[in-house]
Amino acid sequence: MEQNRHKGRHGCSDLLFGCMDFRLRRAMNEFLEPCISNGGCDEVRFPGVAKALLDDQIGPMALDAIRIGVEKHGVRRVMLVNHRDCGAYGGSDAFHSTEAERAQHENDLRRAAELLRKEFPDVAVELFFAESSDGGETFKVEPLGEGISIR
Ligand SMILES: [Zn+2]
Q: Residue 2, exposed/middle/buried by CB under 10 A (0-12, 13-18, 19+)?
């Protein structure tokens, strides 16, 4: 054990807030590898992610979970990862086009980021979307476009 970064206490700088969907596991592992190598990250899972944060009932519970990471572990960056064909949104079938589905997720992610920014002003919020081009068989986590990352 050469590492003594957290001598006598434990902490990590990143928190992932992702969906519970089992299909994301492989993509998430790949996505999280840099965080894991860099001391690990907290993980919170709620179906729908951004939708959960914006929900009147689930939102406060999700915020409480994030708060534990921020206050107890020193989290400084929260990564929100919504995904294609999410059951909490009714899946891809609930949308009339792939573009409309994507737009809904991006809009919710931005609103959720605003909420987090108010709640945790010192924490960076980064937004991601796990895209699937094969109907939900496999996913790839991608950052949302420029200007969406909020500090
Ligand atoms: Zn989902």
A: exposed
How confident is the model over 38-47, as pLDDT tens digits?
889 999 999 9
User: Residue 5 domain-assigned?
Assistant: no
Pairing type for strands 41-45 and 14-18 reads parallel
The first and second tokens of residue 127, run together, are: 């937004």
CA-based nearest residue to 85, from 138, 43, 27, 29: 138
Residue 35 domain-assigned (yes or no): yes
Instruction: Give the single-character DSSP code of 130.
Output: E
Give the distance (Å) from ligand 1 centre to CA of residue 46.
Answer: 8
Structure tokens at 22: 């089992």
User: Is 28 in a helix, a strand, or coil?
Assistant: helix
| CB atoms near residue 33 (< 10 Å) | 10
Look up residue 4 and give its amino acid. N
Domain that holds residue 25: 14-143
Which CATH number characterizes residue 115's domain?
A: 3.40.1050.10
**Residue 101 · residue 139 · CB < 8 Å:** no
pTM metric for this prediction: 0.89
For ligand 1, the distance from its centroid to the CA atom of residue 85, given in whole angstroms, is 7
CA of residue 21 to ligand 1 center, whole Å = 5
